[in-house]
Amino acid sequence: MKKQPLILTLALLLVTLPFVQADNHGGGHDEHHHSELEDQMSAMNKAWRSIRRQIKDPAKNKSTLALVAKVKTAAQKSVKMTPMLAEEQKGAAREKFIANYSKAMKRTVGLIGELEKALKAGDNAGAEVLVGKLNDARKKGHENFKPEDED
Ligand code: HEM
Description:
This protein is mainly α. The protein has one domain: Up-down Bundle (Four Helix Bundle (Hemerythrin (Met), subunit A)), CATH 1.20.120. It is built from five helices and no strands. The chain has helices at residues 3-26, 36-54, 61-79, 91-120, 124-145. Helix 2 packs antiparallel against helix 3 (61-79) and helix 4 (91-120) runs antiparallel to helix 5. The model is unreliable at 21-30 (pLDDT under 50). Protoporphyrin IX containing FE is lined by residues 34-35, 37-38, 41-42, 44-45, 48, 83-85, 101, 104-105, 108, 134, 137-138, 141-142, 145-146, 150.
């Protein structure tokens, strides 16, 4: 006799809990929407920082290669994406902007391939030069294709 109210309370809790959780998901204040390209860029950013930190160390080449593979995958996916700045242009200018961006990103993928080769050959001096070139490509890519108000 005494047990029944407790069982009912527990049953009610079990039934309502999923709804409470679902409501939290939908009612959040996270209004920041990421573009697909931003997601790829963020994915390469963390790996890129580690690569720069450890590129000189031949003992870390295996780990560096795994990080380079991550950057390569994200860069390859990025080639086919459209920067948000393209939406501010129309017609032929927009097409040209996207084509130029895509070309720059393809070149970047090429440099990443060279970086992989240098690391596999144990050429850390060569790899360091390529990291410098990739960093220039990153800066130029951001100057030419990325909105200014972001880093
Ligand atoms: C190692 C190379 C690179 C790294 C680590 C990198 C990193 C980043 C980061 C952290 C952001 C901001 C993402 C955010 O706001 O969530 C970004 C945005 C962006 N990056 Fe890169 N980037 C690299 C190379 C490039 C290259 C080569 C290009 C162009 C050819 C490029 C074009 C862009 C564009 C267009 C955006 C703005 C996102 C959009 O328009 O949707 N990035 N990048």
